[in-house]
């Protein structure tokens, strides 16, 4: 197996070179700042072993895709792949404090197509755990050697879904144990209990309910005006996960303070009365940002409403290829959301290196909403920034 990393720095400044070097691989390559001008091609290194080789993206595309694992630390590079797609792709999100919606969208696009994602922000890590599988926390407070060892274990397990799932649960247990150790510290007990509830929820531990309610009580006592939405609403997802749908809907109803939430509550009641339990569960998960559980429920649910929810998930998760295939061929014809479908397809064409196709679909979306032209501007901005990286004019 060959490994190629993509970053925004020069090879000498690449912060994950130690990870690249410990991975078992036949060859290791790097595409980054100045690679286009400084790379020497593949042939020069034909007889050289155990080094990281600085190459251009054009040389990278000559690598056999079915024998290559890519490690992407700069999301913009994914758009440069064009039709070339490595057998495995790992995203390492070095900095998720993105300042613009466009930057967050690029990161989300990469996470959506990656086989595994490492995140350095625990808040973002939890958010993505609720969106997709195989997301891992690169704990910035742990020793470097431990973090690199953990990442190498995950990358080594990419060929075995069961092992990968086991590593995912292992980390949830580890994070839960850490927060349980903080519960006795009153100054951070509310946060510790809430995070404990989140990890128990992911582990399908029924004690998630008790931890959440204990956190909610502390939030109320501290005078948090928004804690019905930020804390108590999560109870509706916990109860839905346990199959207690009537209680789950009522828990959501308690938090329905504005008109939009009240409308959602009325719809949930209608679906519940009509015996549409799958839709109720999926919608409750979506209302709690648990897109992952919602997708699992909807994968076995037919009908137009289910198709609408699948499209919403595809939109919110950064447009993974698989999700688009699920909604586009059959469901989209029955939707009243053609604009969203056009934008999704535009993003798909851009990731495939088809710029004219992307512009075509963005323009079709703009016929309904001129704001969709912003996606063309985002695409231009991304390509401009990537060109600066390729010429070595920008480094993060």
Describe this structure in words.
There is one protein chain. With 396 residues, the protein is α/β, with parallel strands linked by helices. The chain is built from 20 helices and seven strands. The chain has helices spanning 17-22, 35-38, 57-60, 101-113, 122-129, 144-156, 161-180, 189-202, 208-221, 227-232, 234-241, 245-254, 259-273, 277-287, 291-298, 304-316, 321-327, 338-351, 355-366, 374-390; strands at 2-6, 27-31, 52-54, 68-72, 88-93, 116-119, 135-137. A seven-stranded parallel beta sheet has the order 3-2-1-4-5-6-7, with helices on both faces. Strand 1, helix 1 and strand 2 (27-31) form a beta-alpha-beta unit. Helix 9 packs antiparallel against helix 11 and helix 18 (338-351) packs antiparallel against helix 19. The longest helix is centred in the middle third of the chain and has 20 residues, at 161-180. The radius of gyration is 23 Å and the shape is globular.
Overall mean pLDDT stands at 87
What's the number of extended β-strand segments?
7
Q: Structural class, from secondary structure content? A: alpha/beta
* Overall tally of structural domains: 3
Q: Alpha-carbon distance between the termini?
A: 29 Å
Q: Characterize the overall form.
A: globular
The value of Rg in angstroms is 23 Å
- Second CATH tier, the architecture of the largest domain: 3-Layer(aba) Sandwich
Strand content: 5-15%
Reported by name, the CATH topology of the largest domain is Rossmann fold
Instruction: Assign the CATH superfamily of the largest domain.
Output: Glycogen Phosphorylase B
Number of distinct helices: 20
**H/E element string?**
EHEHEHEEHEHEHHHHHHHHHHHHHHH
């Amino acid at each position: 197996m060959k490994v190629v990393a993509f970053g925004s720095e020069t090879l000498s400044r690449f912060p994950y070179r130690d990870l690249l070097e410990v991975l078992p691989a036949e060859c290791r390559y790097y595409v980054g700042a100045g690679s286009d001008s400084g790379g020497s091609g593949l042939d020069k290194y034909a007889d050289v072993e155990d080094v990281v080789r600085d190459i251009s993206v054009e040389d990278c595309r000559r690598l056999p895709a079915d024998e290559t694992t890519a490690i992407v630390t700069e999301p913009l590079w994914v758009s440069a792949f064009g039709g070339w797609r490595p057998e495995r792709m790992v995203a390492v999100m070095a900095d998720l404090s993105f300042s613009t919606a466009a930057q967050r969208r690029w990161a989300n696009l990469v996470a959506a197509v990656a086989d595994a994602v490492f995140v350095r922000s625990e808040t973002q890590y939890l958010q993505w755990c609720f969106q997709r599988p195989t997301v891992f926390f690169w704990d910035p407070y742990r020793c470097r050697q431990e973090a690199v060892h953990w990442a190498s274990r995950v990358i080594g397990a990419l060929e075995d879904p069961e092992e990968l799932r086991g590593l995912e649960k292992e980390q949830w247990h580890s994070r839960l144990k850490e927060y349980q150790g903080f519960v006795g510290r009153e100054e951070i007990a509310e946060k510790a209990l809430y995070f404990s509830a989140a990890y128990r929820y992911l582990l399908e531990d029924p004690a998630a309910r008790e931890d959440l309610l204990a956190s909610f009580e502390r939030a109320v006592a501290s005078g948090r005006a928004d804690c019905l939405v930020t804390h108590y609403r999560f109870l509706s997802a916990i109860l839905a996960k346990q199959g207690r749908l009537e209680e789950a809907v009522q828990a959501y109803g308690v938090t329905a303070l504005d008109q939009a939430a009240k409308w959602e509550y009325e719809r949930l009641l209608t679906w519940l009365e009509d015996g549409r339990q799958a839709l109720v569960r999926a919608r409750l998960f979506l209302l709690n940002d648990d897109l992952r559980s919602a997708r699992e429920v909807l994968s076995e649910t037919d009908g137009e409403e289910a198709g609408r929810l699948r499209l919403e998930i595809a939109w919110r998760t950064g447009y993974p290829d698989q999700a688009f295939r699920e909604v586009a061929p059959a469901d989209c014809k029955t939707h009243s959301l053609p604009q969203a479908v056009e934008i999704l397809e535009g993003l798909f064409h851009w990731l495939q290196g088809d710029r004219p196709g992307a512009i075509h679909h963005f323009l079709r979306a703009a016929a309904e909403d001129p704001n969709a032209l912003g996606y063309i501007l985002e695409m231009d901005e991304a390509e401009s920034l990537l060109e600066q990286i390729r010429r070595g004019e920008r480094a993060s």
